[in-house]
């Protein structure tokens, strides 16, 4: 049985939930009919004329990219605009376009996990963890009998008792409840003015705090008592495995110059190459990585106490100020490795392809584009010693450079 476009996007959204995307982002299905059969899917970092043509020429029914085509709001997609022309080309060819951007950055595993794996790092956790969804626990007391299943089902349907791939999770213990109905009460069990002791089950379920009102309302509606007793407890916050960037370790420490060469060998070649800032002899063991533009996380890398930080698009002033600090809260500031943006995110394509491969098996074929869509196409390096006489008297910072 052939897969549909919806089958593929459902698998991708399960791995990279759209709810994780940042508010400014645009993720999900850009074009395509979810009901259409899809026999082949192509994965790429960028939706460019080259990757669109590759998708069409290869017979793919869906192009999946990391970067959005339509990131900012648009009022039209006329074919006389570059992006509109790409959409028209895709639609005419019957090829869908799907994007997983910051949701793939934050997911576990996500973009930075793929980068870490390419470098041979054992990941310990996120560099900038996402706050875990706050949880409550509801505890209620239900008379023994059919009402237990009734209340349990109502709480589950309202969102309680879900953990990962499991639902209807709960814990129950037997006990005895006691109450005295007063004037005006309409008790489901017992009489006004008479003390009652009832065999009850204590039912406990955890729920997302965002579902608190719905779960309490479901309890009141399903419970046989006029005034059901319940406790609502706020759970302690839990660490999250989701977030931007990752922290990991090399199997053995190695000099920074060798580590820079490791990065260059692990990623696809670009004109930008791989640049390193730091003492070439510094031992590197713990490493932070962040796929894509990462100078906003320089402080987080310093606080993490890692030996090196690998990312893309490092700017002159933030990098210089980071190195000037010398020592951060976590010890000596990490050495820096700056790679091309496209190269840092390209390993994710194989990870995403693996998601679809695992979910749909042989019903759809997957492939990863090897076209270099990095915008930089040429590079030149000045001859050694080609500096002014004034500059020649200035101290030279430790640096290293590698080109793959």
Automatic annotation (TrEMBL):
Domain of life: Bacteria
Segments of this protein annotated with the region Disordered: 382-404
Keyword flag Metal-binding: yes
InterPro entries reported in the protein's UniProt record: DUF34/NIF3 (IPR002678), DUF34/NIF3_bac (IPR017221), DUF34/NIF3_sf (IPR036069), N-reg_PII/ATP_PRibTrfase_C (IPR015867)
Keyword field: Metal-binding
Listed Low complexity bias regions: 382-392
The keyword RNA-binding belongs to this UniProt entry's keyword annotation: no
Pfam families per UniProt: DUF34_NIF3
Matching PANTHER family: GTP CYCLOHYDROLASE 1 TYPE 2 HOMOLOG, NGG1 INTERACTING FACTOR 3
Summary of subunit composition and partner proteins: Homohexamer.
Family: Belongs to the GTP cyclohydrolase I type 2/NIF3 family.
Name recorded for this polypeptide: GTP cyclohydrolase 1 type 2 homolog
